[in-house]
Amino acid sequence: SGIKRPNLIGSSLGGQISAEYASANPQEIEKLILVSPSCAMTQSTPALDAYIMAALYPNEQSAKNAFELMEGSGKTVNEEIVNGFIERMRLPNAKLAFMSTLLGIKNSELITSKLQTISTPTMIIWGSNDPVIPIHYADSFVSTIQDCRFFRMDGCGHTPYVQDPHVFASKVLEFLNGH
């Protein structure tokens, strides 16, 4: 591929995977950005339960309910997001892949021990109103990663890059450009 030392960004489960990759390959990544990364949550949340139900029973009502809960603002969710999710969850093996991913997260070892080995400059971005993975889980990431900055996106839920893309992009670019 020819790409050397890329910047890596991951959200939710993608954030956990990115953190684990950075832990195992510290010299390979220039900068790391984690957005509401999943971690070893000890219990579920109503928003996560709604998301699981929407994945298992993909219809307009279940998906709309899940995405509105995940956003955490009470605003109506874009119809394209809802319909795209329903279409993807109706693909062959989508439910199996979704559930095996959830079980993998649930049964994974505590990520905190791996976070200590991340030496890559890291930025954590978390929506202050995240109902899927509440913001208090940010503490273990911020306090454990050696070179870590934290940005709390007020008024945002689990997908701050969707809810306030301009602020999100400006903070990411500021970090990537070294400011």
What is the alpha-carbon Rg in Å? Answer: 16 Å
Proportion of β residues? 5-15%
Tally of separate helices: 9
As a percent range, the share of helical residues equals 40-55%
C-alpha geometry: globular
In terms of structural class, how would the helical and strand content be classed? alpha/beta
Q: What is the strand arrangement across the widest sheet?
A: 1-2-3-4
Most strands sheet? 4 strands, parallel
Structural write-up:
- With 179 residues, the protein is α/β, with parallel strands linked by helices.
- Helices cover 49% and strands 11% of the residues.
- The protein has 9 helices and 4 strands; from the N terminus they run βαβαααααβαβαα.
- It has helices spanning 13-24, 46-56, 60-71, 79-89, 94-107, 112-115, 138-144, 160-163, 165-176, and strands at residues 8-11, 32-35, 122-127, 148-153.
- The relative contact order is 0.18.
List the helices and strands and how they pair.
Layout: E1 8-11, H1 13-24, E2 32-35, H2 46-56, H3 60-71, H4 79-89, H5 94-107, H6 112-115, E3 122-127, H7 138-144, E4 148-153, H8 160-163, H9 165-176
Helix pairs in contact: 2-3, 3-4
List keywords for this structure.
49% helix, 179 residues, alpha/beta, 4-stranded parallel sheet
In a nutshell, what does this entry contain?
This protein has 179 residues and is an alpha/beta fold. The protein is built from 9 helices and 4 strands; from the N terminus they run E-H-E-H-H-H-H-H-E-H-E-H-H. The chain has a 4-stranded parallel sheet, sandwiched between helices.
